[in-house]
Amino acid sequence: MSGLGNSSIEAIEKIKARIRACDYLSVAQLFLKDNFLLTRPLKTTDIKPRLLGHWGTCHGINVAYANLKAFYAGDPNFSFVLGPGHGFPALQANIFLDKKLLEVDSQATLDEAGIAYICRHFSWPDGFPSHASPFTPGTITEGGELGYALANAYGVALGHPEKTIAVLIGDGELETATALASLNLRSLLTGSRNGKVLPILHLNGYKISAPSIYARKSERELNELIRGFGYEPVLIDGDEPENFQIALENADKNPFFILKTEKGATGPNRYQMSHQIPLKKVKEDKGELQTLEDWLVSYQFDQIMKNGLEEVSYE
Ligand SMILES: Cc1ncc(C[n+]2csc(CCOP(=O)(O)OP(=O)(O)O)c2C)c(N)n1
């Protein structure tokens, strides 16, 4: 069992700043080929010629990653398995800040040059792909196919009682036969010889542009479904770290967390409009360009740079 300890106000502020930093870096990777720190007003020539990637799920990933990293800081037996494969800018931002990317790529330094490098080369010829790839440290399954995250997490737990594995599952992903059937693994993998799996359903409401089945269910119906598989549902409503930390601290034997954040949260358009790239006309439309600049500025990344990127690292 871990936790934030005595300095919890500082720790909560760090989680908030970390989420802002990762949100900023996610947007910058998707859109920018120059002017990564907004040292001058944004110009159309700063925007990548081909916008490719997924924004909608990124904020939720950043919320889960930061909260788990803070809670399990320094625990070598903790791992995080990420389901929704489309939030690669978010994953890349997190492994960049924790210097995991630096271990395999000497150009991903924790400074201005490293930021320019990861942003410019995201979804770029001979650069990083728009999805997690074998190059990404820790990748198990590649290919953009939804469904395996929960089974992979139980696989890690098998025969390793010392391990704790949190796994983020998309609400669209949980509609797949693979993910849904994997809920049965809880009954197989109990007992003292296996590790602990902490499933987190990312209930952002949409799968691409349609509402997910789980978002259409009432809270009661969803809870009963989860209880039917032997878990205790724990709702984390919104992105406030305080709620997330309390949920982790109070979790009993078989928790199943439901992280409820809006699809596209913190971005300019929400829900079904935000699965991939919002502001599709940003290169031609001055209004959209201004919206992108305002969106980037809203994360106050200049403040984070002033304090130093180490301050938002859980290395
Ligand atoms: C097995 C499989 N079926 C369908 C798809 C196509 N697909 C890509 S993204 C997506 C929706 C994912 O929704 P969700 O898991 O809720 O992720 P998020 O909303 O967080 O992006 C689907 C169905 C896929 N990648 N894999």
Question: How does this model look, in words?
Answer:
Helix 1 packs antiparallel against helix 2, helix 2 packs parallel to helix 3 (88-97) and helix 2 crosses helix 11. The protein has a single domain (8-312), classed as 3-Layer(aba) Sandwich (Rossmann fold), CATH 3.40.50. With 315 residues, it is of the alpha/beta class. The radius of gyration is 19 Å and the shape is globular. It has 13 helices and 7 strands. A 5-stranded parallel β-sheet has the order 1-2-3-7-6, sandwiched between helices. The model has no long low-confidence stretch (mean pLDDT 94). The protein has helices at residues 8-31, 58-71, 88-97, 100-104, 112-121, 149-157, 177-182, 185-188, 213-216, 219-228, 241-250, 286-297, 301-307; strands at 78-82, 164-170, 196-202, 206-207, 210-211, 232-237, 255-260. Thiamine diphosphate is lined by residues 56-57, 84, 86, 144-147, 170-173, 176, 202, 204, 206-208, 212, 263. Residues 56-57, 84, 86, 144-147, 170-173, 176, 202, 204, 206-208, 212, 263 line the site of thiamine diphosphate (TPP).
List keywords for this structure.
Rossmann fold, two-stranded antiparallel ribbon, 315 residues, binds thiamine diphosphate, 11% strand
The tally of domains stands at: 1
Proper CATH architecture? 3-Layer(aba) Sandwich
User: Based on helices, strands and strand pairing, what is the structural class?
Assistant: alpha/beta
Taking pLDDT < 50 over at least 5 consecutive residues as the criterion, the unreliable ranges are: none
Query: How does the overall form come out from the CA principal axes?
Result: globular
Beta-strand residue percentage: 5-15%
Q: How is the main sheet built?
A: 5 strands, parallel
What's the number of helices? 13
- In whole angstroms, the N-to-C terminal distance is 19 Å
Bound molecules: thiamine diphosphate
Order of helices and strands: HHEHHHHEHHEEEHHEHEHH
Strand line-up in the sheet with most strands: 1-2-3-7-6
Mean pLDDT: 94
CATH level 3 topology = Rossmann fold
The CATH homologous superfamily name equals: Thiamin diphosphate (ThDP)-binding fold, Pyr/PP domains
Considering DSSP H and I runs of 4 or more, what fraction of the residues is helical? 25-40%
Radius of gyration: 19 Å
CATH class group: Alpha Beta
How many beta-strand elements?
7
